[in-house]
Amino acid sequence: MNVYDSARMADVLKPLGYRPTETPADADMVILNTCHIRDRAAEKVFSELGRLRVIKQARAAEGRATVLAVAGCVAQAEGAEILARAPYVDIVLGPQTYHRLPEMVARAARAGGAVIETDFPVEQKFDFLPDATGPQLPGGVTAFLTVQEGCDKFCSFCVVPYTRGAEASRPAASVIAEARRMVAGGVREISLLGQNVNAYHGAGSGGGADESSWSLARLMRALAEIPGLVRIRYTTSHPRDMGEDLIAAHRDLPALMPFLHLPVQSGSDRMLNAMNRGHTADDYRRLIERLRTARPDLAFSSDFIVGHPGETDADFAASMALIRDIGFAQAYSFKYSSRPGTPAAGAPMPVAGPVGDERLQQLQALVRVQQDQFNASSVGQTMEVLFTGHGRKPGQLSGRSPYLQAVHAAGPDQLIGTTAMVKIEQMLTNSLTASLLSPVPTRPIPTRANPLLERACA
Ligand code: SAH
Ligand code: SF4
Fold first, then answer.
1. 151: annotated binding-site residue?
2. Which residue's CA is minimally distant from atom 7 of ligand 1?
């Protein structure tokens, strides 16, 4: 979401004459777009600011001014604290205020003092930010599109409800219009974004029955009609918001890729309750079964936290058991990081650091085995790849499989920006190599059942 927001900030600054530079030393303005989800991410901001201070001073010595801005969730959470630690910062702006950036730049220049904007304005930022007109990365054929922001779920450990604010959805018409412009600009795959993307309930696209709010499934059905948009993904979902129509969308929409990131955090009901997740481990297992019934080759990814306050060996063992039962194609896992202001920050029975490290290692080793098994099961398979750019070797193209695996194949440049059928030849550490079967663009065809599911059921 920060990548998407950064691109919108660049768009909003364009009319003022700003354009991207290669290095901070060439920049009249530097914006750090920050993340507050874990302590380490937040601390990185201050070490980066220290480096930028040196650049700002060097430029000042040459008579060149540098506006330094801190955006994102660290700005939202720490506000004036940033200026206390780094008084050379000019602008501190929270994630809901990016549309006001030009005005803040003007104010900072006029006043010569720092500007702080960390309120949650009544107007929605997306009503004022320019739409994306193409991919966010130069030459990219894939793009992010934010459809929903914020969260009302208040998991015990999480800062998102405080930094991104209450859950809000963009109107369907605005999302569809932005997607159309992206596709006209060469985008072939759109990843719909939201902290709780499947809680999406945007206002309908206008007129008659459309007045009611749209679900994510309905939105995706409309997006799938856009000619030239061959792939749709969405992230991040909450198990509680995985409605029947969304499960059906996985069955019905060929453009909806068979890869789902569905964080569960823990396999222990005791911990899920302490985390305020609102579901049990078996709810999650049943949900995965329903999704696999709808789309047998659906591959899953998840997030896990180890070492949440109160987590015992038995709770951790329950997480490992859940991973073994389900079989993930990949997963992200984190050691619990205490975030000021969240309910878990003051919770009793903290887990000792080394215990958390040990659990994290074990969990990551298990996920790695599953990831390797999943990738190995792709060897020999025929599947569709969306080619997004050049590989590292001459004549090599790189792209993604439907299951989000990185794939390399020898092929002509004209294939970049198109899909083609390949045969997977070999598994490397973090990617697959493949040979082209047809350079003709095709639609995705589900070709196989998930071998991990078969193993789990056996
Ligand atoms: N909305 C998504 C997750 C958003 S945050 C969900 O509900 O699942 C992304 C991930 O960061 C979370 O899934 C969680 O695994 C991790 N995370 C969030 N807060 C954390 C904390 N305090 N310590 C460690 N990991 C955390
Ligand atoms: Fe954070 Fe996700 Fe929980 Fe919301 S649902 S509080 S974003 S972990």
1. yes
2. 238
